[in-house]
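Data deposition worksheet. Section B asks for the primary sequence of the deposited chain exactly as it was used as input, without tags or linkers unless they were present during the calculation. Section C holds the resulting structure in token form. Section D is free text for depositor observations; keep each observation to a single sentence. Incomplete worksheets are returned to the depositor.
Section A, Depositor: J.P.
Section B:
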Amino acid sequence: MGWETDWNFIKQIGDGGQATVFKVQHKLDNTYGALKLLLDDSKKKRERRNRFAREIMLLKSITSYSIPKVFESNETCYEDTDVELYMVCEFIEGNNLSQYCSCNALSIDIAFNIVMQLLDAVDTLHLNEIIHRDIKPENIMVRSINNNVEIFLIDLGIAYKKNGNDDEIFDTETQQGLGNRFLELPELKPGPKYRDIRTDITYLVGILFYLVTGCYPRLLLNANNKMPHEALDKNKYSKLLADSRWSKLCRIFHIGFQYNIELRFKTIHQFREMLNGINSASEDFDSIENEINNLNVFIEQSAVKEIEQLYSVINLSMKNFCDEVNSALHTAKLHIDGGPGLKFDNKNKVCKSEYFLRREGRITPTVYFRLSIEYKDYRLTAYYILKNNIPIRYFDGAWVDSQGMYEANKKAANDVARQMLKDYEIALKAEYNI
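Section C:
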């Protein structure tokens, strides 16, 4: 018995390197299905039969609206090369993402909606300890119903399930590379096996880039050592670059396209959280003296690429924090000076420094504040501490997110300046016994 028993052939709808896909219809209830058959040159090949069987098993183990259901299959016969392997799964009426976009950029709002749905689908895979490893526009189906876009993730042909008991039977050989031409990732090149959910997350960052630009990211770093978003033609993409949300997208790309996997998004939650911030209103910061500088200082994105530059990043961040405080206080003829300098405590993974506020030409009175930045797992958590000795956290994020740190510095430094003015006034009254 085969698929012909219950299904009628309608037409071919797709083909890939290993299989052909047909549209079929159930003979009894007229339900449409997508029939997937191995190509002739793949039917006898053990590895491709094993992959196909694993794909079916993984699909059957998942319950998600965004991942097609399997109606019928014969994967249990994968060892018998005389049996034609097949599966019939849910038919998605629509186009793949590449056809849907036709190499044209979509609006940021539409891209946001699509990626959010993909995040949910991939999160379901990861919760089931499955890594897709081949996310690209051709493996994403788009169905439009009443102007609503629904997204489906397909093709788990080279997916990997953690803690599976069948790794040696079904997994890809070590000397074979994985991945696709949509975005080449170093961890998927031939060599030691590298199975990490961050690979899928990086692909989703690539999908976001593709949706808003209409072009494939291809490489994390090009020949000029630039990330995909850094290499865009400013004239061609002038409208996108002028969008107020572009700087926030760049923060996502700057983290997600790191060549070192340790510096990228670690979880779907981290990516989703930053993505949610794209459409959030920018904070309206009060500043001293009619909003000095009015947030016009543009902080160029950090070129920091390697973890060895962590100390430099922290040093620059603290210096920037102090510069912001001094900028806020300059008309009051007050300024801050550093204390004994930066203190890096590698054992506890923290850097601390102390600063004093003085009036020009005077030694006393003085008031102080401290900065403390914890560094762990390539993330920074920054605090400021005033005279009440209560740490106030003002940043918690990836250490390569320099723009996010500087934005946090701007707001926190303004708060510190305001409080230090109050503390200085109290100290001055005490000194003069007023």
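Section D:
DSSP finds eleven helices and 18 strands in the chain.
Confidence is low (pLDDT under 50) at residues 283-287, 292-307.
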